[in-house]
Specification:
single chain, mainly alpha, 258 residues, 80% helix
Length: 258
Amino acid sequence: MFHRVFLIARTVWLEFLRRKDFYVVLILVGMFTVGIVVIRVIGIENAATARFLMSLGLLVSYSLAAVLTVTVAARQLPNEIENRTLLPLLAKPVSRAEVILGKAVAVTAIAWASLLLFLLLSWAPVPRLPDQRFFVFVQMAMLRMVALCLLSIYTIALSLLMPSAVAVLISLGTFFAAPTIVNFVAQLVSNSWRLGGRVVERILAIVPDFSVLEHSERYVEGASPMPILAVFAALGYGVAFAAFFYSLTVWRFKGRML
């Protein structure tokens, strides 16, 4: 099983490297890095400026890694189904669950590699302040990695239910503004349709809140590390949602005609 999953993931990686998406995003991050270096050479006058640049760099690196993750994840299954390249693969002793797992592993690996590289390029040029602890940075990076793993599986699941472009928009909307959107929709429906409001509330409960896994402000502001139980709770939240959407994707994919 692991060998088959690895081969599927490797194919996704090779296809990813042949496309220009990553290199375009890398150029954007590189331009930001050059800008930070220029500002540092000119001189950073106070701690507030350093904190702002650090916050901006962490935001840019995370946002671009998320956009790259979503665009890669959204085209995995739809492209294969449209081009009918899944049929020869499934004719071999490969289950549909293994296909989903292989693609999810590959997209997650791409997301993690991109995030770590972008984080390095945006974090390294900015001067660190004495109260910014590296252990808090590690906590932040770990939670972001789980968030991108969830995002990749969530997007793959959506891509089986709707067109790829719509899946991309919904995934990015959920990633950047899930609490705001969920609260707005719930309030709108509850005010106009009481029974429907209860149904919608239950549906909205399965929309992941990625803000649970985002704690960069703790590092930027020099706060103390998160309690271990809080870290495990956040990690458990991300892993549970990832497992749910993986199961949903496998169930939907098994029942789909190719």
